[in-house]
Amino acid sequence: MREIWKGLLALLERGEDAVLVTVASAQGSTPRGAGAQLLAGRDGLAAGTVGGGPGEAQVLALAAELLEQGRSAVRTLELRHGGELDSVCGGEQTVLLQFVPRGSQGWKALGREALNRLEDRRGGWLVLAADRDPVLLEEGPGGSAWDGQRLLLPLPKGERVVIFGGGHCALALAPVLRSVGFRVTVFDNRPEFACPERFQEAEAVICGDYTRIADGVELTEEDYAVVMTSGHRHDFEVEEQLLRRPLAYLGVMGSRTKTAYVNGKLREAGIPEEAIRRVHTPIGTAIKAVTPEEIAISIAGELIYERALRRENAGELGHECPAGL
Asked: How far apart are CA 137 and CA 141, in angstroms?
């Protein structure tokens, strides 16, 4: 969503009209669920996607018409074989297409505030409609909501991954996580490894004491933690603290022998067996990864899956149809 608002502000600053397209609701199997967005300008797609394929092509064609006409619209896309779009997905998307005039100070102000909230992880709620200007609220109902006229859409705070250890695997992992929408923080006890120049994709790089991680970073139940320090002792020090607090995810890199050793130390420290079983170790999806780059892909894949499960459990709409079909 940050790229959408950055793109919109850029178009308005250049004196160009735009159309903001948002999936208001989705039924059945669709390439993207409620809340997916794209931005269209006079040169076509500017940012985002609502799923690709024939559905997105029709949305972009309609956006071009709305740019010429200077108006907004609501459209339902039937993504079924033999239908208007002859798509194999088998579902239906309702999309809200909002014309954004280049001279609108209201859209500019809202865009700046939305972008600031996204960057600061403050959240909020957008009220979007075809027949009125958008509104930004502090509170909302939970998941996205569409009543046929208005769409209430949450501004995501963004899932954060805190990587403990700034070695070569972390160096490969940080840009991959950033590319798939995670916010990245790196924590290491070595100044030469914990420097912003080394991790330019991270929003924070912290040099701190592994035995006192709370002094350097405040973790919440929404955070994902990845442990890949430089040794068994540091892994234990970090894990022992992390397992005493709620987290969205905790994964640890290492062999099964190393895992058994650290788990034994955790039991001696009084960590419950149930908590130890929740740790994802060896971390990552089983793709026989060897190089740091392969390991990064493996870990990112597992984190994407865990993030999707949490979003589904929170009531956000999922999808089954591969993008582009």
From this structure: 11
Tokens of 232: 């068994």
160-312: CATH topology is Rossmann fold (3.40.50)
Q: Any idea what the Cα angle at residue 167 is, between residues 300 and 294, rounded to 5°?
A: 35
Please, are residues 16 and 7 in contact by the beta-carbon 8 Å criterion?
A: no
Tell me how many degrees the CA angle 27-30-35 measures, rounded to the nearest 5. Answer: 80
Angle in degrees, 0-180, between the axes of helices 2-13 and 105-120, rounded to the nearest 10 = 150
DSSP assigned state of 322? P
Query: pTM here?
Result: 0.70
Cα end-to-end distance, the chain, whole Å: 23
CA distance linking residue 248 with residue 161, whole number of Å: 10
Please write the tens of the pLDDT for every residue from 69-105: 999 999 998 876 555 555 556 688 899 999 999 999 9
Give domain limits for the chain: 2-154, 160-312
DSSP codes of every residue in 38-86? EEEETTEEEEE-S--HHHHHHHHHHHHHHHHHT--EEEEEEE-TTSSS-
